[in-house]
Predict the 3D structure of the following.
Amino acid sequence: MANTWGYGAMTNSLGDIQNAKAIIIFGANPAVNHPVGFQHFLKAKERNNAKIIVIDPVFTKTAAKADHYCQIRPGTDIPFMYGMLNLIFKNGWHDEKFIKDRVYGMEDIMEEAKKWTPQKVADVTGVPAAQLIQITTLYAKSNPGTLIWAMGLTQHSNGSSNTRLAPILQLALGNMGIEGGGTNILRGHDNVQGATDMACLSDTLPGYYGLSDGAWQYFAKSWGVDYDWLSGRFKSKEWMGKKGFTLARWWAGVLDGKDGNDQIHNAGTNLKNLFVMGNGITSIAQQAKVKEGLDNLDMIVLCDPFVNEAAILTDKQDDVFILPAATQFETSGSVTATNRSVQWRSKVVEPMYEAKTDHDIMFELAKRLGFYDEYTAGMKIKENKKDFTWPEDATDEIARIIKTIGLTGWTAKRIKKQTENWHMFDQISGRGYGEMKGEYYGLPWPAWTETHGGSPLLYNINRSVAEGGMGFRNRFGLEHDGHDLLAGAGSAPKGSIQKDGYPEITAENIEKVLGITLTADEKKRIGKNWKVDTSNIIAEKCMEQGIAPYGNAKARAKVWTFPDQIPMHREPLHSPRSDLVKEYPSFDDKENHFRVDTKYISKQTEKDWSKEFPINMVTGRLVNMNGAGMENRASKYLAALTPEMFCSIHPDLAGKHGIRDGSMMWIHSPEGTKIKVKAKYSFSVPEDRIFMPFHFAGHFQGEDLSHKYPKGTKPYAVGESANTVTNYGYDIVTQIPETKGGLCRIEYA
Amino acid sequence: MKSKYIIIALITLSSLAFGASDSAIWGDDLLKDILGYDKKGSLHLGQYFTILQSTYFKPLFFGVLFGIPAIFFIHYMIIGPMIFSHDRKRIYVFSVFNRMIHTIAGIAFILIIPTGLIMMFATTFGGGEFVRVSKEIHAISTLLFIVSIIPMFFMWLRWMIPSSDDIKWMMILGGYLNKRKDPIPAGRFNAGQKMWYWIATLGGFLMIGTGAAMYFQDFRLDILASNGISQIDFLRASAIVHNALGLVVLALFLTHVYMSVFAIKGAIHSIINGYKEEEEVEILHSSYYKELKEKGEV
Amino acid sequence: MSENARLKFYCDEHRCISCDGCSVACAEAHELPANINRRKVITMNEGIFGLEYSLSIACMHCTDAPCEQVCPTDCFYIREDGIVLHDKDKCIGCAYCLYACPFGAPQFPADGAFGVKGVMDKCTMCAGGPEETNSHKERELYGQNRISEGKVPVCAAMCSTKALLVGDSAEISDIYRERVLSAGHGAKIQPYGWSTAYGSKI
């Protein structure tokens, strides 16, 4: 999404969903994953007569509340959306003015959409043509319509194409930047948005600055750390700018390309030690490989309030350390929700027993590794202090430094005040009353200055920039192939000195674009561009003139740096339709993909997987659990709701294999692994696929490993991990695993 | 200590696959049962049970418990007991086996009936621990009852088959309404004894069944499920039958006690030593006496 | 809440997403043993489009409560505001209340010897029991007493989508009516279960 229009986050807010007239949900299950947030969907249905359309391979709890449900084959969202676009363009339901002024490259999409007739779509996706026509008509004619997605679109080998076509669909309908519209991606876990904003990723510095030299220079300066010292921490300066391993494939870095494993590019060494804070080890695909990776490490350190099942999955006996981390109740700080808004969490109890807070653990580690002073220098810069106060100084450091997503307004003081006054805000629009007037709840980023109220609706040109409005970001240059990439005439945010498109603001163009003159002092202090402007002069001036610091450009339907310039359908690596694999093959193999050579076409065509593994496999969440289930399975009542690992299977499919309701079954994977789970008859899956929750761990390929838990730490519920059988497959851009569509073979146990 | 609770929780949880859906009452049937409560065409056992238990059972039991002894008391005052001579021969009527079985059954009844009444009138006893203990005694005594009533059923079966004598016996009410000593039409066992036998055995089996259903409460019987009878309706029916039949059992038990202890002087000895007075057999079981005479055993 | 409040539960099946927040909140707040479900969420017609719905079920605290009528030890007592409670010390675990109940609310933890069922336990609408309010014994036997502190019963407080409501009958009816009117469809004569529990016409 960031490659389409500049920011890759939920564009509107949960409350804003109540303004929609149609809500189309691709591969998301908010009734299970956002139960409280789902209230807004239900209220939209109740109060606004909004229609809910759910597109999902499984009939989920969300689908149970939908007005229309399409049971789509996993991994075929692109044909489906093109099918919708085909009908939209054919019938003239698209917003021509919006496309002309604010979108580049739609012509190529129109061409591609012509190929996807309702009949073709029905063949590829399994959704009847009549149903496609019905819901497209409904959705296109409902104004406004909002589009929701989650892991169902992202966890595929072409997930990055899926997440581009969905915005394109909304752009075609002119549903962007309006109340009740937008592309609302629902981020899952608590503060996962905050974690990505702070770059718990291996390809960027915090705030999505990337890894360029300019970015490193900026951060060195902002952190008060010598640039040369910082670059000296890497093997060589060249490695500073290289992407690291991902959470999905770190283990490949351990296995170092031996025994048929993918080759790595890690300066000639393999990974030796692993330090894990929180979850994430057993909720990754190819668990057997993860285990191998764990077994071959020199040292494993696991920090968590509960025992991470990586500790019992591995056969490693020595040098496995478990550090008790404190929970969120034992510490305080800011958290960011899926709609880019921030809240303050306060400590209610001191860390118990020997648990230490995450930051204490990291500070202690930094002390012993010898860079504690450099590590904490950034927190003392603002007020030139001798010592820092945690967490307020950390929050203020973030606000001081991160300009790309406009976190300048997120000072600790402001955030705390907001959370203390959370009753003073409107549920739907987020506007504050009384003392909180002028602010939106949570100060959704970007909050360009220290007094800015936040931007709840991205790309909304019906509001002034000071009130949270803006156009699309100028991120991809000023022109491409002779076409102007800046926004069309008259499509600037309200109350702006500029009425048309304009580039992102730099020290060079600020006077011209804003129509102002800087004083000599300002010229001395101003940063090179809006992203590295420590003085914040650019942002302040922009607010005065109604200009968005990041420019006002067109969104692009074409990403010329991606393997597929416009989104194209490619069958999942393990597809049940071998005929379609020939017609829509996967990408070419990618070398050095986050340091690991990753297979695509060679894996897909290795053999006809569907012959031996005919059943489509989908994994997903349960409402009472999350992630690898560490905490939830150790909680008595949550575990009591689903005490055993199971697989949802259609009675007819189960009958064919002699599997009764409640009896055990084997699920075999193309990886060569297998798991033994309980069968649960359900009509929520059709006859050609099964559904599994991925929250269980403690068993491995039929063997119970739970005796390895240290005394008193075994959770109430243990079971097989679905990821023991999820297949090889990673997104071409992000390397997220293809867990939402794989193949398997089932057998009576 | 804490680990004990964790183990209990683990065991309970591991038997709770998919939540409590194994429960026949609170599992998947729950919503169906709720909808069925008021539904037209359903058995409405819930409503019947509520009406019967709240309004009728207690007064009826009270009536039987005090009314029947009262009637017998009046009978004793007015008509008095039947007295038979001890000078003639004695006939062996109850074997060791008969008497043993009857004794065990008798003990069982003496435990079951009062404890049952304590449960019925629990308010009078203040509820709580005392009544809970009675409940357990009521249940455990059932075991004694089971081991005695099943042999009893078979050992006396062939003499308990209804015959024409029984109709005649019924019409004169066994001859207890006058003081004369006319021969009464009856075989080895008279109609009154036969009534008691059938209630005690077949009725007893029914009491055991319905009582066990209520005791074990949460289980699944396929034969009920396949006939569309939910477990909760089965329990409600069990409660109604158990209480209604209990009335009958109580009434006949009291009658049996009165007859064997008071109404016929010395009758009780026959179940202790096995012998009946010849005159008693001649009068009260005239057909049986004729039979014995023909066979030459008398 | 007004002096004349008559408290009732209502669960809106258009909003219930079977998240089980209510049942877990109840179990957690009252520290119930794992096999007692004072409140349960049931899903009917699972997986079938247009027919699947979920409901959260517990004691409805009926008017003329049948459980109270049939109890042999008379251990039930009904408060002015309609909450039906019972005395565990008097209860003998005979299960007559279960037979009389249209909603299957009474439960029997198997904590006696040989797994024999113990005394009855059921939803108290977070109003505790006959013991002294907020005493240790009350909490041990019956769970929290939130009503005495003016708090909402924890199940409805926790409901993710506000499908489960509890409060004065008139207020709840108003909310129900409002929802039905704004949705423009889905109206029933009265909220589900109310005719059985309260003999009400709303």
